[in-house]
Amino acid sequence: MNISDNGIEILKRLEGCVVKNGLHIIYDDQTGRAINPYNLLPRGATIGYGHLIKPGEDFGRGIDESRATELLRADVKIAERTVSQNINTTLTQNQFDALVIFAYNIGENNFIKSSVVKFINNPNYKSQIYPDLTSAWLAWNKSNGRVMAGLTNRRKTEFNLFNK
Question: Per residue in 98-107, is it b (16+ CB within 10 Å) or e — as a string?
């Protein structure tokens, strides 16, 4: 499966972006604040919809919406593959989209090891921490150990999509 256009639009909304003068510009992934592209880029320097800038990539002049979407679609391939390879039950399109959005945000390794995957793959799974899939999913709402309202809302949006 591949993420749907609806899934991409939801992901764009959840990831957010920083646009100035019609162009996506480099920003700090944690704070959402613009970064001066002429300084040394810090860890977490991002452009478009959550594209972490890799060594050698130059986005100093910004990128247009088309390029931002292109980067997102390329980046989301990893999450699509991760979901496809680690979920062994049949999914609806909305469930697949929700899991891809979730995996895109928490990362491949975290997704693979998550109780979310265990609950989905085995309806009889018993966690010592989470009583059910809902609580396991919604628990991914922290950054640096702190509960973040934005992540809490994101998890609710993803889980609502999963259950649609």
Answer: bbbbbbbbbe
Q: Is residue 101 part of a domain?
A: yes
- Torsional sign, CA 84, 90, 93, 97: negative
Q: 0.90 exceeded by the pTM?
A: yes
Residue 99 lies in a domain: yes
**pLDDT tens, position by position, 75-124:** 999 999 999 999 999 999 999 999 999 999 999 999 999 999 999 999 89
Residue 115, domain member (yes or no): yes
Catalytic residues: 15
- In angstroms, the CA 35 to CA 19 distance is 12
How many domains are contained in the chain? 1
Say if residues 40 and 33 touch (Cβ distance below 8 Å): no
* Cα 51 → chain centroid: 10
CATH number for the domain spanning 126: value is 1.10.530.40
Residue partners of 72: CB distance under 8 A and separation at least 6 = 8, 11, 12, 15, 48, 49, 50, 51
The string of DSSP letters for 38-61 reads: TSPPPTTEEETTTEEPPTT---TT
**Does 151 reside within a domain?**
yes
